[in-house]
Design brief:
The complex is a heterodimer of chains A (303) and B (321).
Chain A lengths: L4 H9 L5 H7 L23 H5 L18 E4 L24 E3 L9 H12 L23 H4 L4 E5 L3 E6 L5 E5 L15 E7 L2 E7 L19 E10 L2 E9 L8 E9 L10 H7 L20
Parallel strand pairs in A: 5-6
Antiparallel strand pairs in A: 1-3, 1-10, 2-10, 3-4, 4-5, 6-7, 7-8, 8-9, 9-10
Chain B lengths: L3 H15 L37 H12 L17 E3 L6 H5 L17 E3 L9 H11 L25 E5 L3 E5 L6 E5 L15 E7 L2 E7 L19 E10 L2 E9 L8 E11 L23 H15 L6
Parallel strand pairs in B: 5-6
Antiparallel strand pairs in B: 1-3, 1-10, 2-10, 3-4, 4-5, 6-7, 7-8, 8-9, 9-10
The chains are: A alpha+beta (303), B alpha+beta (321).
């Protein structure tokens, strides 16, 4: 179920959207600021799949360089692209239970400022005019990480032995997880961050830093910043499925690390097609001639 | 036959190199959607401006010297040549980027010989109508139409006119130059894509012809330009590329284009260039992590300038009037 542009525009046009944030957010009391209740993300435990499933974990075939083989065309089919949190339907948008497994209430553990900023993002992304829509994907910008993975377009994974490439059909965007511990330029701020990958048995662990203040997590204004740290764990659980787990931390906007989990499914097509977003925008009457609008860093208050 | 061929290729290619078949230009890609700004001037013949040589003569001389060495071509474990590495047309890409035919220099662009190997006169055999269209596109006020300035996929085979990283496995040949040139090619014997699907990068399949990798591309959408100077093809185009190692460090690349809607006959462009083994960041010398961001479209301030110039010429008014 690729998200057609028609549908995306419908979503942006949906006027009755006051219902969903009001309904959900009315139930939340402010999260008290506290010391991180989790250990550092790098030591955060990952789910022992074999123990959970009650049987031996799936052992994937190997690539010529001996790594678990993730190559092929994959796609996520859920409602995370609309919102990673639980949400009711709106016009053109399917309701969803959310994909957050920790904290248990399924909500992103924002600081109060950040939750407010998310609501502002939401309000500013209801327009079908891409130039005015605050969602970077409405302007065909790169989607950020991890949104890249679950925004709904097919992704091709290619393993070269020293790198794992993720190529999205969306706007020919593409990320590389370099399989080394080569140092990263601490000043770099990239739309898709800088990723380093490593293998832990059957699991590919991708560690991404160096994101920027522009990327969102979904169409509902959930967002990350340049200090966000994203750790993804991909594990094949069978011939056609990847278990995909994401832990995100950002001490500036979250009160602690939090985790999403979903399945990435193998597609039967042998190749990607194209969604040349910029050209489609131009054909729809929005030639990409707006001025640069992402120079200003987010004014995140100190905690 | 196989043993004789590499020798012939070395000789033929050395002749080509010495005759100036290598475009000897500035290493810096000029223009594109990254705010290159002032260098994206009118193609060929503009008044004023000494060419910026940027060391291209030395690089080309070095490349020619290397190409004459007798070194064995790189092979993979399956015995086929293995192209995993980076192809860097020497001295940069300004010539190819601007025009494929011979052209004088001007406004930051170096003069260059033709890259057309066939027909022998070095001119693309456009039909009369297509030539008029090419010359229309060559006009600076029409450069706004060039897909690359808008950070749209480059089309095939334009991405080969830049430094291009390549990865080859038994199943795939993956080219990832500037990211607008991203294309994944399967090893296959026939095209399987419906004619009703037309793509910027087309549908490409790879096969072997001895030690030459052949990439056959159809299903192009004909919406892209081949170079800044307006060279183009239509959605009826059929491209056959041939990748052949000259020696361990030099790759010969050529493309034959057949397009009855645009050209009176098939034509071939080619240029050999240095090739460096290994993956990752070519600037770091194969193996270094490639961490660069491709924020081409995000903040593409050039697009608005080209658009405004186009409007200005068409309406006779300056921007803001």
């Amino acid at each position: 179920m690729a998200v057609s542009r028609q549908r995306v525009v419908s979503f942006f046009r949906a006027g009755c959207l006051a219902s969903f944030p009001t309904l959900v957010y009315a139930l939340i009391s402010p999260v008290p600021v506290q010391e991180s209740r989790y250990p550092a993300v790098s030591t955060f435990f990952s789910v022992d799949l074999a123990a959970q499933a009650g049987g031996p974990a799936y052992k994937a075939p190997r690539t010529p360089s001996g790594q678990p083989d993730f190559e092929g065309i994959w796609q996520v089919w859920n409602t995370a692209k609309y919102s990673v949190e639980p949400h009711v339907a709106s016009l053109g948008v399917q309701a969803g239970l959310g994909v957050i497994v920790d904290p248990p209430d399924g909500l992103i553990p924002y600081t109060p400022w950040a939750r407010n900023h998310q609501k502002e993002n939401f309000a500013k992304s209801r327009t079908p005019d891409p130039v005015k829509n605050a969602d970077p994907v409405a302007k065909c910008y790169q989607p950020g990480v991890p949104r890249f993975m679950y925004m709904g377009w097919p992704i091709q994974i290619i393993q070269t032995g020293t790198e794992v490439h993720f190529i999205s059909e969306y706007a020919h965007t593409w990320r590389i997880a370099t399989l080394s511990s080569a140092p990263r330029d601490k000043d770099a701020e990239n739309f898709l961050g800088v990723a380093r990958g490593r293998w832990e048995g059957e699991t590919l662990v991708v560690d991404t830093t160096n994101l920027n203040d522009v990327g969102w997590l979904d169409m509902s204004g959930n967002f990350l910043t340049k200090t966000s740290h994203v750790v993804e764990r991909l594990t094949r659980t069978g011939p056609d499925n990847i278990d995909y787990e994401v832990i995100i931390e950002d001490p500036r906007i979250f009160t602690g690390p939090w985790k999403m989990r979903m399945t990435i499914e193998r597609q039967s097509q042998k190749r990607l097609l194209e969604y040349e977003c910029i050209d489609l925008l131009a054909e729809a009457g929005f030639p990409p001639i707006w001025e640069r609008d992402w120079d200003q860093p987010l004014a995140v208050p100190a905690r | 036959m196989r043993r004789v061929l590499p020798g012939l290729l070395v000789a033929a290619s050395a002749a080509l190199l010495l005759s100036g078949g290598l475009s000897a230009q500035n290493a810096q890609p000029q223009g594109g959607g990254r705010g290159g700004g002032a260098n994206q001037g009118p193609a060929g013949g503009a008044a004023g401006g000494a060419p910026d040589d940027g060391g291209w003569e030395q690089r080309t001389a070095a490349a020619r010297k290397k190409a004459a060495e007798k070194t064995p071509i790189p092979r993979g474990p399956d015995g086929h040549p293995n192209f995993t590495g980076t192809f860097n047309p020497p001295g940069g890409n300004v010539n190819q980027f601007v025009l494929l035919e011979e052209h004088p220099g001007g406004f930051g662009v170096s003069a260059g010989p033709s890259l057309i190997a066939d027909p022998p006169d070095g001119k693309i055999p456009y039909t009369a109508a297509a030539l008029a269209e090419r010359d229309r596109r060559k006009r600076p006020e029409n450069h706004w139409e060039d897909n690359r300035y808008k950070c749209i996929l480059m089309g095939n085979p334009r991405e080969m006119l830049f430094g291009t990283r390549m990865y080859q496995s038994p199943d795939l040949f993956f080219r990832y130059g500037e990211r607008e040139g991203l294309v994944v090619t399967r090893f296959a014997t026939k095209h399987e894509l419906s004619n009703s699907i037309q793509l910027w990068m087309g549908d490409s399949i790879a096969s072997w012809d001895g030690d030459t990798l052949v990439i056959d591309t159809t299903n192009l959408n004909g919406k892209f330009w081949l170079v800044i100077g307006g060279d183009y093809l239509s959605d009826a185009a059929h491209i056959v590329e041939r990748f052949t190692f000259i020696n361990h460090d030099t790759l010969d690349w050529q493309a034959t284009i057949t397009d009855p809607k645009t050209f009176t006959r098939p034509w071939t462009m080619k240029f050999p260039g240095p090739w460096v083994r290994g993956e990752g960041n070519p600037a770091g010398g194969g193996g270094a992590a490639f961490d660069a961001d491709n924020a081409c479209h995000e903040g593409n301030v050039d697009a608005v300038h080209y658009y405004n110039y186009n409007k200005q010429v068409k309406t006779g008014k300056s921007a803001g009037e």
